Amino acid sequence: MPRVLLIEDDPSVREGVELGLRRRGHEVAATATGEEGLAALPEFRPDLVLLDLMLPGVNGVEVCRRIREAGQLPIIMLTARGDDFDIVIGLEAGADDYIVKPARTEVIEARIRAVLRRIEEPGAGQPAVERHGDLALDRSGLTVTKCGRELALAPSELKLLLYLSAAPEQVFSRQQLLEQVWEHGYHGDARLVDACVRRLRNKIEDVPGTPRYIQTLRGFGYRFGPL
Questions:
Q1: Are 136 and 128 in contact (CB under 8 A)?
Q2: Tens of pLDDT along 146-193?
Q3: Mapping DSSP to helix (H, G, I), strand (E, B) and coil, where does residue 211 land?
Q4: CA–CA gap between residue 108 and residue 116 (Å, rounded)
Q5: 74-85: per-residue pLDDT in tens?
Q6: CA distance linking residue 56 with residue 58, whole number of Å
Q7: C-alpha to C-alpha distance for 25 and 61, rounded to whole angstroms
Q8: In 3-state terms, what secondary structure has residue 34?
Q9: How far is CA 110 from the centre of its chain?
Q10: Strands 221-224 and 75-79: what pairing?
Q11: Which of 16, 51, 92, 215 lies at a C-alpha separation of 20 to 30 Å from 28?
Q12: What is the DSSP string of the chain?
């Protein structure tokens, strides 16, 4: 079972989530502050982080940024509010998904498994390594290089790129991408897609504002080039 690092300052939420995940077989390390969570990372070595957005001291957004600077550990942001501004900031900081509290344990576990599947499923039926312009995608090794330099992609960014590039020139709506990449149903949040596309463009495009690889078709969705 995946090892989960929970960083949550609310004692009742922290204890409830920790107990629920432990009952389902997860090994959980629970901390109350961003500083404690960051300090626990090297020793606990989690498979995924559940990160509260509103933390005292070093807040969740800053914790997310620091984790992203160090590696591509999957992150699910927890927020007590459905506040658009907070959610967008968390996604832009590098979170792979988010959950609005309170949430049932089965919902949290389903999101954990969905995020982890994104780094376990290379594109079926595709060549192990394929080239698109300056990009080389290794679907079996789950790596992406640009001009020979490996790119550090978060799980959602990697899965999105692999999914789009498996069908070049095909246009996918945001809802299709939510269902296939994030495994969210009809009520999924399109901001997940848009934030992930922006982060991905910043890593793979020479000029993110004039994208060559991931193109937007207004009113329809996204497609993979390259132009």
A1: no
A2: 988 999 888 889 989 999 998 888 999 999 999 888 887 656 688 889
A3: coil
A4: 12
A5: 999 988 766 667
A6: 6
A7: 28
A8: helix
A9: 14
A10: unpaired
A11: 92
A12: --EEEEE-S-HHHHHHHHHHHHHTT-EEEEESSHHHHHHHHHHH--SEEEEESS-SSS-HHHHHHHHHHH----EEEEESS--HHHHHHHHHTT-SEEEESS--HHHHHHHHHHHHHTTT-PPTTS-SEEEETTEEEETTTTEEEETTEEP---HHHHHHHHHHHTSTT--B-HHHHIIIII---TT--HHHHHHHHHHHHHHH-SSTTS-SSEEEETTTEEEE---
Two structure tokens written together for 50: 């559940």
CA–CA dist 174, 97 (Å, integer): 15
Q: Which residue is associated with the tokens 């995940």? A: 21
